[in-house]
Amino acid sequence: MARTRSLQARVFDMLQTPTFGMLLALRLVNAMLVQTYIHPDETWQSLEVAHKLVFGYGFVTWEWRHGLRGFAHPMLFACVYKALQVLGLDDTRLITVAPYVLVAVIAASVDYATYCFARRVAGTDVARLALFCSLVSCTMSSGVMRPLANSAETAFTAAAFVYWPWTRTDRTTAKGSLPTALVFAAMACIIRPTSGIIWMCAIVMLFVRQPRLGRAIRILALATAIGVPAISSMLLIDRVGYGMWKFPPYAFYLFNVREGLGTWFGESHPLYHVVVSMPVLFTTMLLFVVHGVWIAGQSARVTREPA
Questions:
Q1: Do residues 79 and 58 touch, judged by C-beta distance below 8 A?
Q2: Where do the H-state alpha helices sit in 123-212?
């Protein structure tokens, strides 16, 4: 019994003052335990593309031949492969292990950002619970622990949430929070351009909560100052990847929206994400999530705050 209490005390202390190094160690173990394959994009939209960029050979799917995908995410793993090549370690087992070390870093970043975000908006006690939920989440331990663009997008989005100026708490960092948040948001959009939908909504909400013209102009100028370099970076990355100038978000729009060719692969019901995605993502936590959203709405914790 004493040993059990001692273990519980250590776990509690760990959650009370988590460090990124501690979370990374946990996710490294998690990465080594993931021995399954659940999504084609784990290989064909990341590792295989990165392998071809560095070593000159690898299979490329039709999306890449039509310029529908951006190279920003595969470039992350290409950097890992290139480092192994330079060090002469590309013919060792590290060629398969090293990419998942990067995945562990991404997942640990999500964990740490989740804790920081929850601490900022709801306090340390809630932050510990949020971190615990992140650590035991099936989606985190199995889904995010894969070389998917969604995983890196989640990490940058979570980091942006930490700094986004939408609560009355943590006012000491409110003044400098919006630029940092926009930088992380821009990175999320570079990795996965559809993330822009989230941030367009967030910017609109920010405008609504900032009725003064001067502040609105400042926000727009700041978003432009960060957005233009981000788009330029995306263009340059894809120029390197494709060997020619391409803008995948526009090609994606033409293929899936204007021409509607994406429907050839099937269509989902408008409520698909509500009745399928959310239960799969939250699993046994779904009822607690719904209850938490209800409580947050009732207590009106999201309030107006200067950007």
A1: no
A2: 124-136, 138, 149-163, 174-191, 196-208
- 3-class DSSP state for residue 1? coil
Burial class (CB in 10 A: 0-12, 13-18, 19+), 278: middle
The answer to whether residue 127 scores a pLDDT higher than 80 is: yes
Average pLDDT over residues 237-243: 94
pLDDT greater than 70 at residue 165: yes
| Cβ atoms within 10 Å, residue 123 | 11
Q: How far apart are CA 173 and CA 181, in angstroms?
A: 11
What CA–CA distance (Å, rounded) separates 60 from 136?
35
Enter the pTM of the model.
0.87
Phi, psi dihedral angles at 209 (to 5 degrees)? -85, 0
Q: Distance (Å, rounded) from C-alpha 105 to C-alpha 145?
A: 10
Residue 142 is given by DSSP the state I
Rounded CA-CA distance 239/113 in Å is 32
Sign, Cα dihedral of 85, 91, 96, 100: negative
For 28-44, write each residue's pLDDT tens digit. Answer: 999 999 888 888 899 99
C-alpha 83/C-alpha 1 separation (Å) is 49
> In degrees to the nearest 10, what's the CA dihedral of 173, 199, 184, 257?
180
Tens of pLDDT, residue by residue over 246-260, are 999 999 888 888 887
Residue 191: both structure tokens together: 């990795």
Tokens representing residue 196 in the block = 């822009």
